[in-house]
Amino acid sequence: MSRQIGDDIRALRKSRGMTLKALADAIGRSLGWLSQIERGQTTPSVRDLGQIADTFGINISFFFRSASRDAAEQGIILRAADRTPIGSTESGLTEELLSPSLSGSFEMIRSVFAPRSDSGGPIRTGAREDGGVLVSGRLTLRIGDLTVDLAAGDSFQFTGRDYAWENPHDEAAIVIWVVSPPVY
User: How far, in Å, are 78, 99, 182 from residue 140 at the CA level?
Assistant: First the structure.
């Protein structure tokens, strides 16, 4: 389990453009200790994981997904029962991380866009690549200057372009989203 936790911490840190030193300083630990955690050489305490989770704005349970599963599955298979919710219903967007690991070159996310909700403006993506397929409902995406209305079965893919979303309808829209490199 310590290898998976270390890989997740490294992926989260890098996705946020944070240095090892910056994270170590933020949680009040040494650079060497954090480096050992990321390399799977030692396991952080629950208190330390809580501080790391707080720094990244995630729930500590994120680090324990699949912990009760066979060690051979960890980092390869993520069972539906082990998915970790991300976000809140207050924002109109709730997500579940579908990827068993954040150490790969992409991540998969199940995004649920509540009825009558929107992103509140453009979302900056930097150089990352986004893609997905609308599984159910309808959703409006604004990718740069392009505005498109998507229906179930429609898919999209774009790189390095700001985007916004809106669900002006009375039913939730569900998207399986793929992001490279991982952002969670």
Answer: 30, 25, 23
Report the domain count for the chain: 2
The yes-or-no verdict on residue 54 having pLDDT over 90 is: no
Query: Which residues constitute the domain of residue 38?
Result: 2-64
Chain CA centroid to CA 139, Å: 20
Domain membership of residue 6 (yes or no) is yes
What is the pTM (predicted TM-score) of this model?
A: 0.72
Mapping DSSP to helix (H, G, I), strand (E, B) and coil, where does residue 23 land?
A: helix
| For range 99-108, the mean pLDDT | 84
d(CA 142, CA 161): 10
CATH number of the domain encompassing residue 108: 2.60.120.10
pLDDT bin (cut points 50, 70, 90) of residue 1 is: very low
